[in-house]
Amino acid sequence: MKTAHPAIGDKPPPPDRARATPDARGPDLWLIRLAAAIDAARTLGIPTDEAEAVRVEAVERLGFPADVYVLALVGGTGVGKSSLLNALAGSPVSRASVRRPTTAEPVAWVPREARGDLEGLLGWLHVREIREHDDLMRRGLAILDLPDMDSVAPTHRQRVEELLPRVDAVVWVTDPEKYHDAVLHDDFLREWLPRLDHQAIVLNKSDRLAPEDIQKLRRDLEQDLTNKFALSGRRQPPVIVASAIGGNAELRELRGWLATEIEAKRIVRDRLAATLATSVQRLARDAGVDPATDLEPFLRSSARRAAIENVTSAVLRAMDLPELERQAVAATRARARARGTGPTGRITSSIYRLSGRQSRAADPDGYLVRWREHGPLTPAVETLRHALTEAIRSASPSVRPALAASVEPARIRRGLEESVDRAIGRHEWTVPSSRVWPVISVLQTLTTGAIALSVLWIVLWVLARPPVATIELPILGPVPMPLVALVASLVVGYLLARTLGLHAGWVGRRWAARLRGDVATTIERELVEQALQPVDRLEAARRSLWSAARGAIEA
C-alpha cells in the first residue's frame, strides 16, 4: 500500500504515542529547532529560503515509507559507478561504457517487494529508470546511480545537486586517478560530508594498484577526511577499497559495509536530522552565532544600565522638570487661595483663573501633556544610538542592517515619545489640599469683616465726630480707636495671608518633589522596558538561534 506524502509547505504530522517525546537526535526535534531558527533568522533579516526548502523537503521525506533508504552512488566521469552497481547486482543494471558521459539520468535499483511503496518516493526524486532486485540481503536498500558530477553536460551536475539533498545516504566513488579531484573534494565533499551521517568513500579500480599503493591512497583519503571532519562533530565516513571487475573478493568490504548499515529507519532519520541540524547551524553562522561558546549580548548588562540611565537623564532634561516643580508649587498656592482666603481673595483667585495665567503658570498636568514643547529629544536619541555603535560595528554583516535599523533616529524618537506618553498617562495627579486652609479662610473672612467695620467706623467718626476712645501709643501719642481697629485688622489679614502662602508653599514643594520623583521613576521604568525593545527583539532572536544550534553540540 502506498503512503501519501504531505504537500510542500505542510507542517509535519503529529508524532504517534511511541514518539510523544522527540528524540534529541531525531528529525522531529530538529524540525522544531529549524522552525524556531527560521523565525529567528527572519527577525534578524537573514535570508531563509534555503532553510525553508530544507524544512519542506524533510517534512516530505517523513511522509514516505522509511523501511527502505535511498543510497546514491556519486562520482566523477569514468570512476566506475555503473560498473560498481552492476557488480553489486550481479547483472547489468546501469549502462557502463567507455564513452563519456554514460549516465544521463539516475537509475534506481530497488527491492521488488518494496517497488509499490517506493513509487511515491521515486516520483519525488524524479527517478524514472527503475530496475528491481530480489536480493534479500539488501531489501531495505534502494541504490541510485547518478550522472557524473563533473560531466561536460551542465544538466548532469545540476541533476546531482538536485538529488543530493533528498537521498538518505551516499557512496562517493573515486579511483586512483581522481581521488584528489578538486570537484569531488572542494565542491562536493566539503558541502555534503557534514550533512550526512551515513556515507562512505569507495576507492574503485583497486585491481590496478599494488597492495602497498592501495594502503597509501587509503591513508591519504582518510587524512583528508580527518581534516574535513575535525570541526564538524560528525562521524567520519570509512574509506572502502573495491574493484568492479575483481569479483566478490574485491567487493567484500563494500558489501560488508552495506550489510552492517542496513537499518533503514535509523538511516533515514539520521540523515534528516543531520540535514536539518546543518541548516540550523548555517543560519546561526550567518547570524554570527557560535553555538560552541556562550552568546555575548549586543549590550552587556553594565553598558545597558548605563545607556538607560543616560537616556533617562536626557529625556528628563528635555521635559524641564524644574519648571514642572515650579508649576506644581504655583498650582498648590492657587488652590490655597481658592480655599483659604476671604471674599477678596476668592475674587482675586477667580480673576487669576479666568485670565488664563493659572493655566500657563500653575498647571503641572497640562505642562506634562505639552512636554514636547519644552525641549528636543535629539540628545536622548543620540545617546541611545551611541551606546549601540560598537555592537553594530561588531555584528555579523547579515545582522548589521537589522540592528542598525533598530536604532534609526526616527524609530528611536518615536519609541521614546511613546514611552514618555505612556509614563505620563499612567498617573492622574491631583493638586493637594490641607485642612488648615478652610480654618484660615474663616479667619480671613472675619478679618475682612473687621476691616469693613473699621472703615465704616472711621467714616462715621470723620463725618459726625462722635466721641471715641483713644489709645496712647509711643511716639504717635493718642490714636483714635477706629484707626487702631483698622490697622489691627489689616495686620491680622496680612499675617493670615502670609501664613496661608507659607503653608501652601510647603505643601506644594513636598508635592512637587513627589511629582518629580514619580515622573522620573515612571519614565525610567518605561524606558527600561521599551527603549531597547527593538534591540531586545533582535537579541531574543539571536538567543533562539543560538539555542537551536546548540542542540547539535549537546545531543
Structural features, described:
The protein is of the alpha/beta class and 555 residues long. It folds into 2 domains: 23-286, P-loop containing nucleotide triphosphate hydrolases (Rossmann fold, 3-Layer(aba) Sandwich), CATH 3.40.50.300; 302-434 and 507-554, no CATH class. Helix content is 59%, strand content 8%. The protein has helices at 27-43, 49-62, 81-89, 115-124, 154-163, 182-192, 211-229, 248-260, 264-286, 301-319, 321-340, 343-354, 357-361, 364-369, 378-387, 389-394, 400-406, 409-425, 436-464, 481-530, 533-554, and strands at residues 69-75, 107-111, 129-133, 141-145, 169-174, 199-203, 239-241, 470-473, 477-480. The chain has a 7-stranded mixed sheet, sandwiched between helices. Helix 2 runs antiparallel to helix 9 and helix 10 (301-319) packs antiparallel against helix 20. The protein is rod-shaped, with a radius of gyration of 44 Å.
Radius of gyration: 44 Å
CATH superfamily of the largest domain: P-loop containing nucleotide triphosphate hydrolases
In CATH, the topology of the largest domain is named: Rossmann fold
- SSE pattern: HHEHEHEEHEHEHEHHHHHHHHHHHHEEHH
Quickly name the level 1 CATH class of the largest domain: Alpha Beta
Rough shape? rod-shaped
Largest sheet: 7 strands, mixed
Coarse structural class: alpha/beta
Write down how many β-strands occur, each being a DSSP E stretch of 2 or more residues. Answer: 9
Unreliably modeled segments = 1-21, 97-101
Report mean pLDDT, rounded to a whole number.
81
Structural domains: how many:
2
Strand content of the residues, in percent? 5-15%
Contiguous helical run count: 21
Question: Considering DSSP H and I runs of 4 or more, what fraction of the residues is helical?
Answer: 55-70%
In order across it, which strands form the biggest sheet? 3-2-4-1-5-6-7
CATH 2nd-level architecture of the largest domain: 3-Layer(aba) Sandwich
- End-to-end distance, in Å? 35 Å
